[in-house]
């Protein structure tokens, strides 16, 4: 076992982790970034569409309108103070990225170019606005490259291919984490004054997902297993346009460029569900509409998918119909959606310039996660009690600026804004804090669990259980939900945990690059997060944002303007207690904007 000591340990090297590392190091802290992937392979690199900021480069825009869209898009569950910070800080955060060298697309005058995106409007919902800043459809890739270079320049120390498996708590503080080095199988202890989790999402809980294979939520699970709650797990976003059968994401930017959703009759069905903003309605609305079309037998060829059409002739027809003067041509579409065309041609054999794309909703984004305040400090209860030394940012965190449903482009904003705030806060904190000692035997628990997994004498391979879990979650805890299916889903996750503990077998018994064991480890994490998602969803007897209950179709603002906190009460991080989980729904949603301006008060969402 090796021990490393740094002022700040950042777990994860996506946009959130890198931004936090950069700012902590700028503030004078000695910083280590521990990442299971080589940094530029993080999922942030897959973000295509853009990053939202009310720069107003092409038409009038204001941060307060961005905050309004965020609150409304989040179906009023967003903490309004956090949504306002997100929108206000977005402007200089994007300009700062540009100054660091990020090659944004530009207007002819040389300003950062902006495009439309679902749910982005001006003047409190009046009409669509161009707010998404982008570098072609490679925005996330460019963010990662830019931030990684800046971190290297600032002498942040990187530990790549180190898989964090446990978080260390002592004397009421977070004091670091335990990681397995992929190349050697050796355990490393990272001892820090501050530890920030930025480990991204867990789309791999579901069968059809846009998320990379690595998005298994192990950072979230490590924290959760040590008694820190998961907040708002029932709110998981399905992106409407995943490539049929594969789930690979086709960016909302396609509809931003004028792409249209069509059913088997060639009908633009979003006109029925969202007469005002149609195909650019927020993601929860579009995903549900696609499901309803499919259910009504309007899927293409009677199957469970519809078409997304961005052929110039189609786009121009609808632009003309809407009375717009703008027209598009092939070269323009090919330039703006270069990655998309490539993905469709490679994975589906479809050329979007000449054929419509087959699409279906795909599990995409966790609104829930580790609860934090607006400075990325982890809070552990409804009274916003801070756990000293522990921070979280990015998709793994729940600030909660996205509420029940995240708007497109707001995740990249979240990474940059709250990653930066976390980094600044950490730099301040480590200046006055001293190192709290490590707990005795810091690696004992995770080492024992690894040994148990490695030497399992069962009959089932991890991938078999994973497939079963993903099927169960897709069928029972997907876009539409109801009590019976949710209960069955919850029960199934518990049975799967049992099988994970008693019936597993691992082929590779070695220590070096043992991805077999690490995949099994990731499966354990997926099971924990799936269980907490199913229970939180079963408990919330209303429909709001991405959480759509067929047996409770209405939003219930009287009883449910609260966040869900889900705790694992077990002393053993790897074994459930009895009863296994505890829910707390006393954490109220921050309504500070609504208190000043009725525009922010909950009302029915009309599109
Ligand atoms: C295909 C796709 C397209 C998207 N497009 C957009 C978009 O256009 N606009 C937008 O706003 N959002 C978009 N999103 C969402 C957004 O990209 C993500 O929410 C965001 O990038 C997450 O960033 P992050 O920094 O939190 O984590 P990630 O970028 O996912 O990085 C996670 C990091 O944690 C590390 N890690 C994970 N587990 C461990 C562990 N156990 N030990 C050590 N390290 C660990 C990984 O190595 C990685 O470095 C998209 C998402 C997808 C999947």
Q: Determine the fraction of residues in helical runs and give it as a percent range.
A: 25-40%
Rough shape? globular
Small molecules bound:
flavin-adenine dinucleotide
Could you tell me the radius of gyration in angstroms? Answer: 23 Å
Straight-line N-to-C gap? 57 Å
DSSP summary: helix tally = 17
Unreliable stretches covering 5 or more consecutive residues? none
Examine the coordinates and then state which fold CATH places here, giving the name of the CATH topology of the largest domain. Answer: FAD/NAD(P)-binding domain
Please specify the SSE layout and strand pairing.
Blueprint: E1 2-11, H1 15-26, E2 31-35, E3 51-52, H2 63-73, H3 80-100, E4 114-115, E5 121-122, E6 127-128, E7 132-133, H4 139-153, E8 157-160, E9 162-170, E10 173-181, E11 187-197, H5 218-224, E12 230-231, E13 236-243, H6 253-256, E14 260-262, H7 270-273, H8 283-295, E15 306-309, H9 312-321, H10 330-336, H11 338-348, E16 357-366, E17 370-371, E18 377-379, E19 386-392, E20 397-398, H12 410-432, H13 444-454, H14 462-476, E21 480-481, H15 483-502, H16 515-539, E22 548-549, E23 562-568, E24 581-588, H17 592-596
């Amino acid at each position: 076992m090796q021990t490393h000591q740094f002022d700040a340990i950042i777990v994860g090297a996506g946009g959130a982790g890198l931004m936090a590392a950069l700012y902590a190091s700028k503030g004078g802290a000695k910083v280590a970034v521990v990442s299971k992937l080589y940094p530029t392979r993080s999922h942030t690199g897959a973000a295509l569409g853009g990053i939202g900021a009310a720069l107003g480069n092409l038409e009038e825009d204001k941060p307060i309108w961005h905050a309004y869209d965020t609150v409304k898009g989040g179906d009023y569950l967003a903490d309004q103070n956090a949504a306002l910070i997100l929108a206000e800080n977005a402007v200089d955060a994007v300009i700062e990225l540009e100054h660091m060298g990020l090659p944004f697309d530009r207007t002819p005058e040389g300003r950062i170019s902006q495009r439309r995106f679902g749910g982005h409007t001006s003047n409190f919902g009046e009409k669509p606005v161009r707010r998404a800043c982008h570098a072609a459809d490679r925005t996330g890739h460019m963010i990662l490259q830019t931030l990684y270079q800046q971190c290297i320049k600032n002498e942040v120390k990187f530990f790549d291919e180190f898989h964090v498996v446990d978080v260390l708590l002592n004397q009421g503080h977070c004091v670091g984490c335990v990681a397995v080095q992929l190349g050697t199988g050796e355990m490393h202890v990272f001892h820090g004054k501050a530890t920030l989790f930025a480990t991204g999402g867990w789309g791999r809980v579901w069968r059809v997902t846009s998320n990379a294979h690595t998005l298994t939520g192990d950072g979230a699970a490590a924290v959760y297993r040590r008694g820190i709650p998961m907040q708002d797990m029932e709110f998981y976003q399905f992106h409407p346009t995943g490539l049929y059968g594969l789930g690979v994401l086709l960016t909302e930017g396609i509809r931003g460029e004028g792409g249209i959703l069509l059913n088997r009759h060639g009908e633009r069905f979003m006109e029925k569900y969202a007469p005002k903003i149609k195909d650019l309605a927020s993601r929860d609305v579009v995903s549900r509409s696609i499901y309803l079309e499919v259910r009504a037998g309007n899927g293409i060829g009677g199957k469970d998918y519809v078409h997304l059409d961005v052929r110039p002739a189609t786009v121009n027809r609808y632009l003309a119909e809407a009375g717009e003067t703008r027209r598009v041509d092939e070269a323009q579409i090919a330039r703006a959606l270069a990655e998309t065309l490539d993905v469709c041609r490679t994975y589906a054999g479809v050329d979007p310039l000449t054929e419509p794309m087959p699409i279906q909703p795909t599990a995409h984004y966790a609104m829930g996660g580790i609860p934090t305040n607006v400075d990325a400090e982890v809070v552990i209860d409804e009274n916003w009690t801070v756990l000293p030394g522990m921070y979280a940012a990015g998709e793994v965190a729940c600030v909660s600026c996205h509420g029940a449903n995240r708007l497109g482009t707001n995740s990249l904003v979240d990474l940059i804004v709250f990653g930066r705030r976390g980094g600044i806060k950490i730099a301040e904190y480590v200046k006055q804090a001293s190192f709290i000692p490590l707990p005795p035997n810091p690696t004992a628990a995770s080492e024992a669990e690894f040994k148990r997994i490695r030497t399992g004498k069962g009959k089932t391979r991890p991938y078999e259980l994973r497939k079963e879990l993903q099927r169960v979650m897709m069928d029972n805890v997907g876009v539409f939900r109801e009590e019976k299916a949710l209960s069955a889903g919850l029960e199934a996750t518990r049975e799967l945990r049992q099988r994970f503990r008693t019936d597993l077998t691992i082929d590779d018994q070695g220590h070096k690059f043992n991805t077999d064991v690490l995949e099994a480890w990731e499966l354990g994490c997926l099971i924990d997060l799936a269980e907490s998602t199913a229970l939180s969803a079963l408990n919330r007897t209303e429909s709001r944002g991405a959480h759509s209950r067929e047996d409770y179709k209405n939003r219930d603002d009287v009883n449910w303007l609260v966040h869900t906190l889900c705790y694992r009460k077990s002393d053993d991080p790897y074994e459930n207690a009895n009863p296994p989980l505890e829910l707390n729904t006393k954490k109220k949603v921050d309504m500070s904007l609504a208190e000043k301006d009725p525009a922010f008060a909950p009302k029915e969402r009309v599109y």
